[in-house]
Amino acid sequence: MSRTLTRLRALGAVGLGVVALVAGTLTVAPTASGASCSTVEVIFARGSGELPGLGIVGQPFVTAIRSGLAGQSVSSYAVNYAAALDQSSAGAGATDMTNRVRSVAAQCPNTSFVLGGYSQGASVTDISIGIRTMLGTGQTIPANLSSRVKAVVVFGNPLRLYGQTIRTASPTYGSRAMDICNSGDPVCGAGYNMMAHLMYQSNGSTTRGAQFAVSRVRAG
Fold it and tell me: What is the pTM of this model?
């Protein structure tokens, strides 16, 4: 087991308690039912230790995208995975993310996608778009559906600890990706400020990420 993975698991255990303080009461966010087809579906994977739903970063991210795409229908789907503190569930999360893309794409030929994740959820996203990580393996989005993914936005991505970002690691999705890492964040920036990892929802990062996603969607 790598020293980096051991560090991530330790940070996950610490982070759970702090997330509770930052978020207050976490609630399960509504997800798209699949009964009707939206113009855009945002698929987001929450961070380690968060309750099921979009999470403390995903919820404001989706809200900001809806605001930026006013007049278009925007659905959301919270990736169904354990978000385990030992960082062992990213592979299963990637499979769920991939299966959601496949399912909606088959039912809704005109729906496009925005993918995203926070912390371990960023690793879920990495795996789903075909990037190898140290946090497991899972199913990846088929090449014939890649053009339907208009933007990929992740926050606090552990991939950065290995000297990579989605832009550098993915020839397919790199130009459509924004990989946001706060200065001092130990999960993505090898820093020592755990609070930096917990401020994406309050420091403008979700708005910035949503603006990028909206611009990519509008660009077609």
Answer: 0.88
